[in-house]
Amino acid sequence: MKSLLALAAVLLSGCVSIGLGGESAAQVQLSLHDAAIASVTRRAEPLANALLVQPQPANALADTLSIAYSRREHEYAFYQFASWTERPVRQLPRLLVQRLEARGVAAAVGLLGDPLRADWLLTLSVDALHHDVRTPPGVARLALTAELFDRRTRKRLSHRQFEASTPTERADSSAAAQALSSSLSKVFDELLPWLEADLQRAAAPGEAAALR
User: Average of pLDDT values for 3-13?
Assistant: First the structure.
């Protein structure tokens, strides 16, 4: 709540972007990416016929094209000459679908709303996404919450939050975007084993109750 109030104060004041120094005067667009997808090992067999991913409402900092940084706890500002190519709340679920496809977790993977019938639903919410520069050059902080549902019974089978921090090389937007992408890959590296283990247990007869 403190974070949201601080962000609201910045937005209402009209001062929604300030630079940290070292920024180019030209406006640039930066993109998050899964830095580790090329090294993903594919499973021998999928765990499910189909899996859908659903974006959930996100932290306000992830539901904007502006790239956030923080010089003090619970206080945020935006880089003046840089923005995301796409709001993270929309981009991260698509990147997760690509990681799941590369890993072969399910025979078919898509976003909710795609013409795909699936028994399993994975929801994803972005809880934190910013460049923490309280101690320059700072660290890139990312936190996601994932929940696995059985669509046949409409029951949540499991949920967990994943967090990662990556040191930035410089206190600027380009370095922040690169480090946030590395944090994203770390989170996905932790999320997939959790998902695979829970999918495997859920698919086994009588084992759904063992999920948390």
Answer: 41
